[in-house]
Amino acid sequence: MRQPHLSSVVERRLLVNYRVAPDAVARLLPGPLRPQLVRGHAVAGICLLRLGGVRPSWAPGAFGLRSENAAHRISVEWDGPDGVETGVYIPRRDTGSRLNAWAGGRLFPGEHGRADFEVHETPDRLRVAFATRDGDTRVDVTADLSDELRGSELFADLAEASRFFREGSKGYSATRSGRRMDGMELHTDAWHVEACRVGSASSSFFDDPDRFPPGSAVLDSALVMRDVPAAWRPLPAAAADRSARLAG
Fold it and tell me: Which of 80, 101, 160, 220 registers the highest number of CB atoms within 10 A of its CB?
């Protein structure tokens, strides 16, 4: 079945970014993907995403749905037909929506687990927490809006960080079969992000010493996108080769 293009409004997309030892990340990636390095570091993080008005692109906006979602993501590159391409690999997606969990991997790319979210937002402060129903993953992040990006060792300023994530618009997600990756690409003509200062961040994924030995995954920065119209376009599924890698 042909998967539809989706329209939406990104009501809030909080990107919490870690700088990570390349060898720690490489063990989590299926071929042909490899870590995309910035100033010698791999880049990984958590996307805490609330979407509104989600619908097939041909459907009226009144039929759009709203949901809280989360994705653990690793910035990657691979060799394409016209040279090196960049995007993200998503080892896990979770959602508060029963419909998203059912439809992901069926009606649109990206298999989702179920999670319960707790969200508190003001114009200047965000707190997003979630726990997955299977007990595997817990995240709790607080962040304040900032007039500039401070303290990052990955990015010199907000403009550089914004450009990096805008260029990594293709996402490939792990699937239960382990033999393929589902693909989705974000498109928007209204790209805009703001800097955040992280007050606290805990993640059972990045805090796991078996996955990331102490010191190999360090919180770096955060960005937020709010109230941005966006379209999501399916990409052809890609083969996932784990023959030379260890699963994370």
Answer: 220
Alpha carbons 20 and 207: distance in angstroms, whole number? 12
- Report which residue type is found at 110: G
The model's pLDDT over 121-162, given as tens digits with 9 standing for 90+, comes to: 999 999 999 999 999 999 999 999 999 999 999 999 999 999
What Å distances lie between residue 49 and 31, 94, 119, CA to CA?
Answer: 27, 10, 11
CB proximity list for 198: less than 8 A, separation 6 or greater: 16, 141, 142, 143, 219, 221, 222
Cβ proximity of 184 and 108 under 8 Å: yes
Q: What is the DSSP letter of 104?
A: B
Question: What pLDDT is recorded for position 245?
Answer: 45
Six-digit token string for 91? 């080892």
Domains of the chain, first to last: 6-239 (2.40.400.10)
Shortest CA distance to 201 belongs to which of 68, 25, 46? 46
Residue 182 CA to residue 171 CA, distance in Å, equals 8
Residues of the chain with pLDDT under 50: 1, 244-248
Distance between CA atoms of 12 and 121, rounded to whole angstroms?
Answer: 10
3-state secondary structure of 177: coil
